[in-house]
Amino acid sequence: MFVSKYFNQSEFMELNLILKKNDKPSLSQASASSTLLRHIAIACAFAIGLATSQLSYAITDPVSPPAGEKFSYAWLKGYARALSEKAYISHKGELPKSIKGMSWDDYQQLQFKKDKALWRNDDSEFRAELFHLGLYFDTPVHISELKDGKTTPIEYSSKMFDYGKTGIDGKTLPEDLGYAGFRMQFHTDWKRDVIAFLGASYFRAVGKEMQYGLSARGLAVDTAMPRPEEFPMFTHFWLEQPKPGSDITTVYALLDSESVTGAYRFDIQPGDRLKVKVDAALYPRKAIERLGIAPLTSMYMIGENDKRTDWDWRPEIHDSDGLSVHMGNGEWIWRPLTNPRNLRFNAYADNNPQGFGLMQRDRKFDHYQDDGVFYDRRPSLWIEPEGNWGKGSVQLVEIPTLDETFDNIVAFWNPDKPVKPGEELLYSYKMYWGGVPPVEPERAKVVDTFTGIGGVIGQHRQYYSKRFVIDFAGGSLPMLADDAQVKPVITTSAGKVEITSARPQHAIDGYRAMFDVVPPDNSTDPINLRVYLEAGGQPLTETWIYQWTPPPQNERDLHNP
């Protein structure tokens, strides 16, 4: 079951104007094109806040346990709960002019000195480096080191940074300027990051490919509503010193916003798939209409199934190509992403989901031909809930984009239970970053989705229809007998389905489903499609779901000779 909303153009334009003013660049030093400016179109209220003196900048006080009390996650939860009972105070401030008006290239020159890295001189498998404030990153965060329950604030010092050729004199910056975030490296490669936290509650990580791609957030509040989205922020971090030889490091974070506070614990374990175990305790200040748990942010511009922006020389441009959901009842669904004409919202109802994520299944270089940012290496991100998450829905937001530097995809879990002030919400889950998720369907999965004009080749088309082609591979498909009676099971919410078939696709040791959809006359309402293959009444594949919006009547070209 799912519900959808298709925003009209005026609603989208209002949202888009807000977003473009608050673009957020990404961390891309791990890619071959380290100067690529990655804006996050659904991010961030980085608007300028209260003005401050050039002699004093930090407007967020440090946080630590009372004297004689050790830091613990239980203490942090108690602090977050108490904070939720107080009025929200903005953490934003006015950057000094020398670092506020810089370009992205200049900002990248503000490099943390390697010899100042946290734990560099310890017997540690990890090192941590800090991000300088500047450009869009105008909100200071407090960062402390945690060892044996004792916290030590990492005070800002311009001596920790190399300012390159920017012309900035670090000595002129406020002594309490603070930091924008941090990143970590692992002993297998000290030059490249494995994870980074920068901006609002955003963070991203890499698997063995060492390639940044999509992002995650600590929390989403009122995403894709007919009003500006709220972006909670991690205001304080505590980086726990890893035990000698350990491949796990722990980060604690305090989250704050107008609507909610939160205490977070991240246990980070690099590997072929980097794993992050997340514990989150949330304390609403007020009712929240749409709460997003484990939110993911990605980009989809051009793909096999959607070439609305087809003027680029590259055949595909995307960080992720589909939403995968392992439903509570065991069903696997695959929803190819699209770049719609208008903002699109879908909710896929479930009870206690087993997992969901934004995937980059297509990992063939020749499908992208991009030797600068390497979309074929972008990680997938799988969320594995722990405990019973109850009833709710996996929600997907797709925002139109004409530019690959704008992230336009969001996915998250939204609980059915209303969020009320004064309560405690506890969520735990594992995150897996890498090329291949830790679990996949036992049945055949979707490997390709193609779309085009319908009809019969060589025959004059009398009416408009859309062709859908879905390739399935894996599972039991390679073992089917030549005379197996495989058929597609197709359902549609509107229109008429015709010219259906399912036949072996030997190039992938799988099967290809093909069908046309004839849309209703004069309707541009979205049509929801659902397809899987079966034989003898038994399903052979995961379920492919799709939302197609027919073009206006005057754009339904039959392409007849």
TrEMBL record:
Subcellular location(s) per record: Periplasm
Top-rank taxon: Bacteria
GO molecular function: carbohydrate binding; catalytic activity
Cellular component terms (Gene Ontology): outer membrane-bounded periplasmic space
Main location group: periplasm
InterPro entries tied to this protein: Gal_mutarotase_sf_dom, GH-type_carb-bd, Glucan_biosyn_MdoG/MdoD, Glucan_biosyn_MdoG_C, Ig-like_fold, Ig_E-set
Keyword rRNA-binding part of the UniProt annotation: no
Domain Glucan biosynthesis periplasmic MdoG C-terminal: 71-548
Entry keyword Signal: yes
Family as reported in the entry's similarity comment: Belongs to the OpgD/OpgG family.
Family matches, as PANTHER family: GLUCANS BIOSYNTHESIS PROTEIN, GLUCANS BIOSYNTHESIS PROTEIN D
Identification of the protein by name: Periplasmic glucans biosynthesis protein
Species for this entry: Methylophaga aminisulfidivorans MP
